[in-house]
Amino acid sequence: MIPPDGQPILTAAAMRAAEQAHGDLSALMDRAGRAVAQAVARLAGPSPVLILCGPGNNGGDGYVAAAALAAAGHAVRLAAVAPPTTDLARAAAARWTGRVETLANAQPAPVLVDALFGTGLSRLLGHAITAPWHRLAAAAQLHVAVDLPSGIASDDGAVLSTPPPAQVTLALAALKPAHLLQPAARYAGTVRLLDLGIAAPSSCHAIAAPTLPEPGPDSHKFTRGMVAVVGGAMAGAGELAALAAMRAGAGYVVHLGDGQGPPHALVRKPWSPAALDDPRIGAVVIGPGLGRDAAAHTRLDAALATDRPLVIDGDALHLLDLDRLADRQAAAILTPHAGEFAALFGKGQGSKIDRTLAAAARARAIVVHKGPDTVIAAPDGRAVVAGDADDWLSTAGSGDVLAGATGATLASGVAALDAAAAAVWLHGRAARRCGRSFIADDLAAALSRVR
Ligand SMILES: NC(=O)C1=CN([C@@H]2O[C@H](COP(=O)(O)OP(=O)(O)OC[C@H]3O[C@@H](n4cnc5c(N)ncnc54)[C@H](OP(=O)(O)O)[C@@H]3O)[C@@H](O)[C@H]2O)[C@@H](O)CC1
Ligand SMILES: Nc1ncnc2c1ncn2[C@@H]1O[C@H](COP(=O)(O)OP(=O)(O)O)[C@@H](O)[C@H]1O
Ligand SMILES: [K+]
């Protein structure tokens, strides 16, 4: 049972192609079912298990798992919604010599395994399935989903039919978008990958702990990375970003704008376009609290005119002409929330991953599409997905903190996609350290502890 960090994410079609390329599908189902049995036995201990099987290959995995658990002496029962309809699932079902109960009449067990539907779900589940399933899940102490919680769309994380939430989802061979994208991900519980030994290449991965440069004997404040935060109408937002940049590891942070007070380590200068000419600046952060007036326009123009890497957030995203980015050589990272994303790129098509990739290609920049799930995409087609964000992040200024942290990781010299992903990871971990009802100032402070 492998944690999802850094693992490839595959659409249903890509998963099917990987399975076909492997060749022996029956051996694959055998491995999948046995791996599920092993995982369930570990999670369940000696508790009796009830496995619910669907008509397709997800159900096939369930039959193999049931047979393997029974062979190991585990108390296991099985209920099916319909007879198996694929050759693979029929062969798997033939290995289960026990009774096949109907879903409607099945009595609960302490451990419930959902092998109803996986990547092949194509439409809503009927009441005849959802009603008994919810009843059985409510009576179970542990609910484990095989590959995906049934009822959710694998590729975009839509909820077609609301499943009873699983505590654990056992992803087979690779992660699928729905393991990380909302609203589906909240029904998956803890996601663990079962390695089936097949190559599952992807340009899209789950977020992982970053490798960031550590200071050494030769370091000084400017080698750690210098960040300039452009201030604006709401000085507090820019200051939060500046504080976050310091706490995320920048060696020198200058806030260009009004505002005063602690921290004393923050260098404060009045705004002037010339201040951006300092060649030591590793990243300019613009947008938090910038405002949308003529002065804000002028500041954004000046930032775009520099040859420095940029983090563009908040108000600056509303003022941005995407075509201006095409002429720049230096990296740019855009950090829109859903509203800013829609205003910049329109509604778009496909999953949040697809839409963010299209936006990155359009902007020729890294796009960090924020929310309860965050997708980070590069123009070259790579993407990183951060699931299970702390919902307490929905607090004013948490985006300013992310923008500042991104300034720090970008100024540290790592490549732009890695810098963006590292900042999202640090931000997410910092939130976890803050407990409940934290404010953005606490979040910025916690970045130091995560570093
Ligand atoms: N990745 C791997 O390495 C491996 C993957 N494997 C496993 O294969 C799984 C994918 O299997 P799959 O393609 O057969 O699809 P699955 O999810 O079982 O559902 C399709 C069936 O459900 C039916 N159906 C659909 N919607 C319905 C509805 N609302 N209500 C009722 N019926 C509905 C649909 O009928 P149809 O739409 O064709 O009429 C069809 O019969 C994958 O998730 C993983 O568990 C392993 O076995 C091997 C290794
Ligand atoms: N449930 C959630 N609702 C809203 N934001 C969330 C949630 N979970 C995590 N976040 C994160 O919180 C941050 C909010 O950013 P943003 O909306 O720009 O806030 P602000 O403009 O107040 O600084 C983003 O990093 C986002 O990914
Ligand atoms: K399932």
Automatic annotation (TrEMBL):
Catalytic activity: (6R)-NADPHX = (6S)-NADPHX; (6S)-NADPHX + ADP = AMP + phosphate + NADPH + H(+); (6R)-NADHX = (6S)-NADHX; (6S)-NADHX + ADP = AMP + phosphate + NADH + H(+)
Residues that, per the record, bind K(+): 58, 114, 150
EC id: 4.2.1.136, 5.1.99.6
Keyword line: ATP-binding, Isomerase, Kinase, Lyase, Metal-binding, Multifunctional enzyme, NAD, NADP, Nucleotide-binding, Potassium, Transferase
One GO molecular-function entry: ATP binding
Limits of the YjeF N-terminal domain: 11-204
UniProt KW Transmembrane keyword: no
Ligand binding ((6S)-NADPHX): 57-61, 118-124, 147, 237, 289, 337, 400
Membrane-spanning residues: none
YjeF C-terminal domain residues: 204-451
Xref: Pfam families: Carb_kinase, YjeF_N
Cofactors (names): K(+); Mg(2+)
Details of cofactor binding: Binds 1 potassium ion per subunit.
Functional description taken from the UniProt entry: Catalyzes the epimerization of the S- and R-forms of NAD(P)HX, a damaged form of NAD(P)H that is a result of enzymatic or heat-dependent hydration. This is a prerequisite for the S-specific NAD(P)H-hydrate dehydratase to allow the repair of both epimers of NAD(P)HX. Bifunctional enzyme that catalyzes the epimerization of the S- and R-forms of NAD(P)HX and the dehydration of the S-form of NAD(P)HX at the expense of ADP, which is converted to AMP. This allows the repair of both epimers of NAD(P)HX, a damaged form of NAD(P)H that is a result of enzymatic or heat-dependent hydration.
HAMAP family for the chain: NADHX_dehydratase, NADHX_epimerase
Protein name (Swiss-Prot/TrEMBL): Bifunctional NAD(P)H-hydrate repair enzyme
UniProt organism field: Sphingomonas rubra
